Amino acid sequence: MSQGVPMVNDGELEQRLGKACEMARSAGNFAAGKFADLGALTVESKGVQDMATEADIETENLLRRAIAEYYPDDAFLGEESCDDFRFQPGQGVWVVDPIDGTQPFISNITSWCIALAYVIDNKTMIGVIYDPVRDEMFAASRGGGAMLNGRPLVTSKATTLADGLVGLGYSNRVEPAETLGPMQRLMEAQGMFHRCGSGALSLAYVAAGRLIGYYEPHMNAWDAVAGALLVREAGGRSNPALERSGVLDKGCAVLAAAEGIYDALLAAVEGDVAVTGLT
């Protein structure tokens, strides 16, 4: 491990990665059962364009119980229970978004996933994103590379913004201009945007080379850290803001891209004003 990275035995990290994939698959299969019976779900609003269902809560509880059984000394940070989060310095933390893409989920659109990461001292050691609809398991460990269903992942070889699609996310926690400005500058640079409604899944697509990059003006740790690790381990780059500020940060802008277009995408996103948290 490089300087400043927590010491974790390679064998232990591999074992945890395997268990993380197992837990994500189990949670994904459970959520898929709920997805197949959407009419039975109760949907509640947490804010503008921010929804939750019992599927989110029950899937998170399933993951919480599994982690407590296998790793009782670790802490748990879940989107649906983040207000109760407690941890000690140096303690491993499992960071979970039980269903990332709840709006597509409740709209019977398939772009949703399970996002699971293991973090120590703000360093993401494991990142897993599971798409149960397509049965795609994106998995990475720090220093160990990134895989999709057991096959190595490599980011796009794009060298210009015209060479593929850039995922763009939107957050109501920031002003619309923080999305519209980057979108306009991307298109002026001959790029094109794509939005699927799941930031975590979009980051996995960057790792897989399906998207050449992704930008969202505000993401929480449970949305971003697993996917950012996937991108880096697949040969791409991501901004370090969430790792620098910690999993309890209130969220920040996230940028991830193939190496060949990262700087061009950063320039398009920032324009004449640096975006808080990108660098």
UniProtKB/TrEMBL annotation:
Enzyme class: hydrolase
GO MF terms held by the record: inositol monophosphate 1-phosphatase activity; metal ion binding
InterPro entries for the chain: IMPase, Inositol_monoP_metal-BS, Inositol_monophosphatase-like, Inositol_monophosphatase_SuhB
Protein residues bound to Mg(2+): 79, 97, 99-100, 223
Obligatory cofactor(s): Mg(2+)
UniProt catalytic activity: a myo-inositol phosphate + H2O = myo-inositol + phosphate
Protein EC: 3.1.3.25
Keyword list, A-Z: Hydrolase, Magnesium, Metal-binding, Transcription, Transcription antitermination, Transcription regulation
A family per Pfam: Inositol_P
SUPFAM superfamilies: Carbohydrate phosphatase (SSF56655)
Top-level lineage group: Bacteria
GO biological process: inositol metabolic process; signal transduction; transcription antitermination
Family statement drawn from the similarity comment of this UniProt entry: Belongs to the inositol monophosphatase superfamily.
Name of the protein in its database record: Inositol-1-monophosphatase
Species for this entry: Seongchinamella sediminis
Taxonomic lineage of the native organism: Bacteria, Pseudomonadati, Pseudomonadota, Gammaproteobacteria, Cellvibrionales
